[in-house]
Write a structure and sequence with these properties.
- One of its GO terms (cellular component) is nucleus.
- This protein is mainly alpha-helical.
- It has two domains: 51 residues, Orthogonal Bundle (Arc Repressor Mutant, subunit A); 183 residues, no CATH class.
- It is 34% helix and 6% strand.
- The protein has a three-stranded antiparallel sheet, covered by helices on one side. It has a two-stranded antiparallel sheet with strand order 1-2.
- The chain binds a DNA duplex through helix 3, helix 6 and helix 7.
Length: 318
DNA sequence: AAGAGGGGCAACCGCCTGGTC
DNA sequence: AGACCAGGCGGTTGCCCCTCT
């Protein structure tokens, strides 16, 4: 089945954007907000494809974009994230506020790739070129894996044959589920859509599919597994002095110790009554989104931000 | 000073996914 | 269930600019 073009290509401009076009787009979005990119060009008086407008806004015009060179910290973070996620630029961007997937992708291809090669590392596998297992290293979780199997890594394993995974290879240590998230079992975690061992008592260990330990010692990923600030609060949920507590979970916990959906939070103490949901970003030490309500995360500003924090936040530490 | 070559990056293309009807 | 649509994503292209000769 063919698809109709996203816009009438015969009457659209292409190539570099002019200042006038930028201003029209900015003004329109300031007035009406983002969304409905298909109809935006006509409404804004732009002879552009809706997709082109979206790209221009997201990659260049958005006011919260960070301009300038990448810092050494950002470099290291990108390398870490790429080693875990592969070319999932949008996920990586979700972890770097103010940076876009396109920017990171370009930066990777023009700078970091070369940097790693200079260190004798394969930029795709993050292993030394002479590593005998370099070719065996598969990409980390794919977007498709994540989207198709949001319940737990057990389901992801089913997508990623072979399914038996008993070791966490992206880090230099194995993760004991109970140790990495000791309170999951004591806070009545719902596991309504998957029963493939997410809350077992015998402490199963996991690894990211396709990754092994071999060669990892050559790259100090400095990954840590630990409880986040918010998890710490949840751990104290029985204490009367706690300001908030987890009262429900939309989904099961991951073996990484994260929830796949925003956590439902009941505020107690001085904030009583301001119940809502909290983005997993909070687990990384960020603030709860405004008024504690669910929806778009005020920190990451994008859905992929949720994903990144949900899936690998704890691996990176808070 | 001018042309060649390469790097950097904005923008485009085509495919995928999720939502709706 | 499947067709359709909008939005989103990763890969690639092509232009501009800088450096080198």
């Amino acid at each position: 089945m063919g698809r109709s073009p996203c816009c009438e290509k015969a009457h659209t401009n292409k190539g570099a954007w002019t200042k006038d076009e930028d201003h029209r787009l900015i003004d329109y979005i300031r007035l009406h907000g983002e969304g409905c990119w298909r109809s935006l060009p006509k409404s804004a008086g732009l002879l552009r494809c809706g997709k082109s407008c979206r790209l221009r806004w997201i990659n260049y015009l958005r006011p919260d974009l960070k301009r300038g060179n990448f810092t050494e910290e950002e470099d290291q973070l990108i390398i870490k994230l790429h080693s875990l996620l592969g070319n999932k630029w949008s996920l990586i961007a979700g972890r770097l506020p103010g940076r876009t997937d396109n920017e990171i992708k370009n930066y990777w291809n023009t700078h970091i790739k070369r940097k790693l090669i200079g260190r004798g590392l394969d930029p795709q596998t993050h292993r030394p070129f002479n590593s005998p297992t370099a070719n065996e290293t598969a990409a980390a979780l794919t977007t498709a894996d994540v989207k198709k199997s949001p319940e737990c890594l057990g389901c992801v394993k089913a997508v990623n044959n072979p399914p038996i995974i008993t070791q966490f290879g992206a880090v230099s240590q194995t993760i004991d589920f109970n140790n990495s998230y000791p309170d999951v079992t004591s806070t009545k975690v719902k596991s309504d859509s998957c029963n493939s061992g997410t809350t077992t008592d015998d402490g199963p260990t996991y690894r990211v599919p396709g990754q092994t330990n071999m060669g990892q010692e050559d790259i100090n990923l400095e990954l840590t597994i630990g409880l986040s600030k918010f998890q710490g609060e949840a751990r104290n949920s029985t204490a009367s002095s706690a300001e908030s507590r987890v009262v429900g979970l939309n989904s099961s916990p991951s073996p990484f110790g994260l929830f796949y959906e925003p956590m439902k939070v009941e505020m107690v103490g001085s904030n009583k009554g301001q119940n809502g949901e909290i983005c997993s970003c909070s687990e990384l030490g960020f603030e709860m989104n405004s008024k504690g309500q669910g929806g778009c995360c005020s920190n990451c500003q994008r859905k992929s931000g949720y994903l990144i924090s949900r899936y690998i936040g704890p691996l990176l530490g808070s």
